[in-house]
Amino acid sequence: MKGKRKPSAFVNDIPLKYKFLFIYLLCVLVPILSINALFYVQISRNVDARERGNLEISVDRVVYDIMQIVNECVAISNTVAADSNFNEILDYAYPDNEAYYEAYDSVLRDKMRQYSTLHSYIYWMGVYTTNPTIQNGGSYFVFSDSDKESEWYRKITSGADKVLLTAYQGTNPLNPPQKEVFVSLIRKLDNFTGQPYHKYLRIDLRLNNVQELFQKERDYLRFKLLDEQSRVVLESDQSFYALDKNALLNVDTGDSQPSRQIVRTLGSAGYTEGWRLIGTPESRKSNGEMSRALRVSLIFAVLTIIIPTLLMIVIIQSYNLRVRLLYKHMKLVKYEHFENIDMYEGKDEIGGLIRSFNLMTEKIRNLINDVYKLEIQKKDLELEQVRAELKYLESQVDPHFLFNTLNAILVICKKYKYEEVTDVIRNLALILRRLLSWKDDLIPVEEEISFIEMYLQIEKFRFQSRFTYDLDIDPAVLNCRIPKMSVQALVENSCKHGLQSVKGARKIYVSASMNDAGLMIVVTDNGKGIEKEKLEWIESHLQSEQDFGKNIGLRNVYKRLMMYYDDRAGFTIESIEYERTAITIQIPIDLAMVSKVEESHV
User: Fold this and answer.
1) How many angstroms from the chain centroid is the CA of residue 489?
2) 3-state DSSP call for residue 297?
3) Element (H, E) at 70
């Protein structure tokens, strides 16, 4: 007679090779691919972060070098502005050209030239003044109408700042017809009171010096220097000369991928307000680093896939070949062909089955030979006896084979000091032996708690430090009898449905005590809890006779309690989502203290 088919028995219908394939895919291939994907993502992020940090250092270095040039120009302008003798000569009203050129030869001629000679980053340095007795030439000019219409003049005269860093397109003082893009430091020369004329010092920076700073980082970054109006003053891959009238009309609109850009301001001084340096990483460098990371990840992935795959193939071939051969010969037994399996069986469990099968077939052949030697009228009776003996042997194989296998594994674990695995196997063997030895439906609370503790130790091995449990049992209730595996089913339900999908610390608390109402047992967990609608549905279907295929364990415990205690037992469920779930069993005091309930209640 076939036993009742359990819902999970469909696994037994799947061929062994598909089971191994399923295990390989979900337990080997998918985890390895996932780990390698995460490994590649992490490496890529680390490479990107490292490269980003190096690029930011490069941009900061260029900003520092540019500001060194600007600040030195500011220092030079301060020196010129503080020279009282120089300013007096420029403010003096010369009666004729001869008087001016005498002052020019003695003081003015080399005053500006000495700075441009000492500092290579100064392209030109000169003074513009409203003193009409000054003669245009060299480094000194009287403001003309075109000069007053220039961009730098409008900016310095419209603001209150004494120093201004500006970019503009203007005429080269040394070559008037030529127009260029200038980056100049303009300084008002008004340090002294009573000055009759307005004077402005103009220091033009040599832009090819700045571009040389860009070229030092050309393998890693492309630079743009933007002025306060977001106009592109200078770029890494373009000339700084602009000979057409549309120069400095190129307003930066931003990179197509702004997250890649590194933007730095040129200091915090007022004269550099709005000026920015933008560095855009060269894709060749970052792509090369990412390619190397990808190659490392691919090599690691190939190695971690090939080795486990080869190992799995060897193991599957070992199992599959012998199991298929055993299955083939067992099918022949159905047609009374009792052939031995002629091969090296191995020393594992399948090898033991093959040896047992060979012994069984040999014994069956001997029995058949003996039966044929008997009288024909006794043939049927002898065959029935043989079948009865075989059936008895088969009924003994499963539990004894399982216990022998567990004991063999236990010996190996002890030999190699796998202490945690040893405890789990010992508890599993005790649980199985307890299940086979239990005959009474009602057992003492002490025995149920002992069974639960063995089960929780197995779950502790499974979850390690992320799982704890606490048993709070009043000694006064240890002899009270309850349905076997009633509390264990609730604990197992908490582990399976409550704690499995929770991240972090998992805890189960089991208490048993005696109060005025009787014996009270509470199982509490800090799992994901039960939704309000689902909890209402469970409570409404506990007493239903219809099998919905859900919450079978809870309904089984509830019905057994009602049968054993004449519908007087209490069974309540309380749950707060992602906080706690508590299931309480309440048994009346007059029934809880009875040493044994009559079997007629079952």
Assistant:
1) 36
2) helix
3) helix 30-81
